[in-house]
């Protein structure tokens, strides 16, 4: 019987160990996934058990948490048109749509309207709608200077 060389036997064994190691790792990953799935299932069963035992003792379950509703977007142009010619922040706060917003939000809206030139401060306090929007000042058109050829010393234009 012929024995393989010692170095060759180790390399063959190392190759087989690599395959075995990969297979064992695959099995361990599968087991871990199964354990996690069953732990989730167990947690759900424990929660169901706790609910049933509370119900049996006469405790009512807490109401489901109300999801926070997102407020509707507001057409601020429509709100602006519906306001009187002169108004204060309290009039804006009494508006059926805008009044549902916090005062800090209303201050921001009024500030934006002032920047846009829609509002001007009223004499007695509050705000007054501007008569018209200020237009952007137009730039004067630049006139390009026309270059003229220098006149020759001996050539003058005759004047008649």
- Calculate the mean pLDDT score and round it: 81
Q: In terms of structural class, how would the helical and strand content be classed?
A: mainly alpha
Largest sheet descriptor: 3 strands, antiparallel
Distinct helical segment count: 4
Amino- and carboxy-terminal Cα gap: 133 Å
What strand line-up does the widest sheet have? Answer: 1-3-2
Contiguous uncertain segments of 5+ residues: none
Order of SSEs, N→C? HHEHHEE
Which percent bin holds the helix content?
A: 40-55%
Number of strands: 3
Q: In angstroms, what is the radius of gyration?
A: 42 Å
What is the overall shape? Answer: flat
Query: Strand-residue fraction?
Result: 5-15%
Explain what you see.
This protein has 160 residues and is mainly alpha-helical. Among the domains are: 10-59; 76-129, no CATH class. Helix content is 48%, strand content 5%. It has a three-stranded antiparallel sheet. The longest helix has 52 residues, at 6-57. It is flat. It starts with 5 loop residues before the first helix and ends in a 31-residue tail after the last strand. The mean pLDDT is 81.
């Amino acid at each position: 019987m012929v024995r393989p060389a010692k170095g060759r036997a180790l390399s063959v064994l190392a190759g087989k160990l690599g395959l075995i190691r990969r297979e064992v790792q695959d099995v361990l990953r599968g087991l871990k996934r199964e354990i996690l799935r069953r732990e989730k299932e167990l947690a759900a069963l424990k929660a169901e058990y706790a609910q049933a035992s509370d119900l049996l003792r006469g405790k009512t379950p807490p109401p489901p948490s109300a999801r926070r509703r997102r407020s509707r977007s507001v057409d601020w142009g429509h709100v602006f048109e519906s306001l009187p010619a002169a108004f204060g922040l309290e009039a804006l706060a009494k508006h059926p749509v805008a009044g549902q917003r916090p005062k800090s939000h209303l201050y921001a809206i009024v500030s934006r309207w002032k920047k846009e030139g829609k509002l001007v401060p009223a004499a007695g306090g509050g705000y007054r709608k501007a008569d018209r929007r200020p237009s952007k000042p137009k730039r004067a058109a630049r006139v390009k200077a026309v270059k003229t050829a220098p006149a020759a010393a001996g050539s003058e234009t005759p004047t008649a």
